[in-house]
Structures are given as structure tokens and as C-alpha cells.
Amino acid sequence: MENKLSIGLFGFGVVGEGIYQVLLQKLSLNATIKKICIKHPEKKRNAPAELFTTDYNDILNDPLINVVIELIDDADEAFKIVSTAITKNKAVVSANKKMIAESFPQLLLLQAEFEQPFLYEAAVCGSIPIIRNLEEYYDNELLESICGIVNGSTNFILTKIFKEKIDYKIALAEAQSLGFAEWDPHLDVSGMDAANKLTILLLHGHGILTSPKNILHLGIENIHAEDAKYALGKRWQIKLTAQAKRLKNGKVAAFVLPQFVSKESQLYNVENEFNGVVLQSALSDKQFLYGKGAGRFPTASAVLSDISALRYQYKYEYRKHQQQDTGLETDFLLWVYVSCNSWADLDMEDFAWIDAIHTTEQRQYVTGGIRFKTLSNATWIRRQGVSLIVLPDGIIQEMNFDLLDKKFLSDPGCLVQGLV
Ligand SMILES: NC(=O)c1ccc[n+]([C@@H]2O[C@H](COP(=O)([O-])OP(=O)(O)OC[C@H]3O[C@@H](n4cnc5c(N)ncnc54)[C@H](OP(=O)(O)O)[C@@H]3O)[C@@H](O)[C@H]2O)c1
Is the minimum distance from the CB of 11 to ligand 1 under 6 angstroms? Predict the structure, then answer.
């Protein structure tokens, strides 16, 4: 890469304007923004008018621009911009986790063919340097698991539910009015945003190329005030965690689900809009990364770090994926808590075993084990009013499935009938 970085910037919103402002201060980087492409030319901008265009070609066809920074909020258009820029031999930086996670196969092929750097540290956990860390540092150390709070909006809402003992809908409305949740919060609260981020972490952490569609994810929409009470009684918190754990057979268990987190976990104290990731590896044991997962300058800091890395020709090499992609495992058990308004909302036959059933005036709940494969195919887990939360250390891999079947499943209905 040439020493001087001449940048074409797509997007001048929260992050785009942030990186523009930061680069004005960082003269030592020798990086200048030559053109900025936006969608709505009528908007007032805090930058000289001659910098702006609405024509992609003003950047993509400019031979003097050697770096494209893509910071728009439209995943389909972002893919067009990024893929065209790579084919035109430009280095690319992006923060668009949805586009990246959904288009990984094509993006890997393009990078291999055109040998251009494509960096996206800001796409996961904003300011936390997680991708390059997994790619480089944990390339040499055997990574066992990644467990993180990777979505700030949902963490903010869960913190409110706990601290103020309020229901999800009230907490969401407060988060929206304070700007910590989008007005259309679906991607965040459904767990989809976290599944996109986990797709990226899986590739860089465990070498697994998959699609977010293959990742079981539930969000926080059904978390009930009674669930928070249950957690408080056990001195736990509820967090939306994205997990990828290497099992004894070498394959990886991965999902995004609400989880009870005990005081012993570093994630317990990750509150409000903050993100945190616990990495467990063979030699170093547990390591914890914590910081702001979103916001103008925290996110711009990760984009800046990528721009800086371009100056020394840095590229992701996807070594783990090339050496061995073990794929995801679905043959394990999850130990879960499920609460509901009526037992009729659950399919009790799906449980491999049940260890507690409880009925209160407001709510009923059950704890027990479910095969992950069964859970992935279950429709009842998405029913309104059904709240499923993984118990701490809920991944169970050493069970004798045959024994379990005989011992607990001879007549699963009878466990419940007496109690409803
Ligand atoms: N915000 C965060 O804290 C954060 C954190 C991590 C990652 N990200 C990611 O960073 C990206 C940008 O997020 P943001 O929050 O900065 O978004 P934003 O504030 O909504 O800004 C989006 C920008 O994209 C421009 N745009 C949209 N479609 C376009 C198109 N087809 N051509 C040219 N420009 C277009 C918009 O133009 P106009 O100004 O003309 O409307 C606007 O300037 C997203 O992928 C997001 O997921 C954001």
C-alpha cells in the first residue's frame, strides 16, 4: 500500500462523521478524505460542501483514491460498494456487521482474488479490539471459548429491567428515548445483531465459516419481570450472551441466547451500553475485554485502528479457517430455565430431563436439559410469553444420551400433569 492514504468515505452519519473529525486531528497518519458519498444531499453537513457526492463512481472510479471506508446503514448497498471497491484494487474498511456476516463467502473469494485488505474491527464490539486479537494473538494459543455481551442496546435494556425492576416494554421505551436503542429495535432485541457478530467471531476465533442463519438466536423480547426476580433470588443477572465453545470432540457449540450469569463471571458487572468478552484458552486461562461497543468515537477508534493498520499492509489471513474448519456441533445438551404464562405454551416432550417445576400466581417455570438440536427445531421457544434462559455453565457435553432417554423420557408428560 502506498504511504499516503487517499480515502473515499461512504456515509456521514454517527460513525462516518466521527472518523472524519478524528482524521482531521490525526495528521501523522498521512491519510486524507478526498470524497464523501452520502444519500441525502439536502442535509446540512459539518464539512466543506465540495467533499460531498451522491455518485458512487466519484469514489469507486477515482484511481487516486486507494482506500474506501464504508460506513453506511444499508447492508445491500454496502455489499455493492465493498465488492466493487475490492475489484478496483482498493483497500476497504467497513463496520457493517450485517453485510459482512451475510456475505462472508463472497467476500473471502474477492479478497483471495484481488489480494486487497478488507478490515472490519469496528463491526464487533465497537472500541474493543477483538477481531485482530483473535486473528493474531489467539492464532498461537488454543482458543477454547468466546463468551460475550456484544450488543449494547440489549444490555442497556436488561440493566434497566434489573435495576428498576420493570418489564421489558417499559425498559425498551426508556432505552429508545435515551438513544441507546433504535426506533426499529428488531435487529438488536431479537438477537440477530449478536448472531451477525458471532458469525464474525467464529471465523476469526475458531476458523469456522458459517452464516448467521445457522446460529440459533433468541433475543430479550420475552424476558419477564418474574425472570429477573428468579435471577435476583439466586444472585444472578440475565445477559444476552453470544457464545462459541470448542467441545471435547473438536467441534464448536455456538448460539446467542439469554443467560443467567453468576457473580463469578466477569460479564456480571458489564452494565448499560457496555460490551464485554471473556476468552478462555488453553494456556492463558480466562481473559476479559471490556469497553464501549458503540457510539461515535468508540466506533471511530476501531475504524482508525484499521486505517492505521493499512499503512503496514495488514490483512486478515483467515489462517484458522484455511487450516481446519471443524464446523458447528449440534449434538450437546443445554441446561435451561423456561418460564411461561401457561404450560400449554411449552412442548414438555422436548426436555431430555426436568429438574424443577414451579408455579406462582404470576408465572410458571421449569428448569431442565434440552438437546441443542431439539431446541434449534422447536417453534415454542419463540412463542409470545415464553422466556428461555440458559443456566450458568449451561453447555453439557458429557451425558449419556441413551441413559437419559430411558430414565427421564419414559413419560415426560407425567412430570408436569400433576402440577398444572
Ligand atoms: N453507530 C454505532 O455506534 C455503530 C457501531 C458499530 C458499527 N456500526 C455500523 O456502522 C455503520 C454506520 O452506522 P451509523 O450509526 O454511522 O449510521 P447512520 O448514523 O444511520 O448513518 C448512515 C450514513 O449512511 C449514509 N447512506 C445510507 N445509504 C447510503 C447510500 N446508499 N449511499 C451513500 N450513503 C448512504 C447516510 O446518508 P445521509 O446522511 O445522506 O442520510 C448516512 O450518512 C453501520 O453499518 C452500523 O451497523 C455503527
Answer: yes
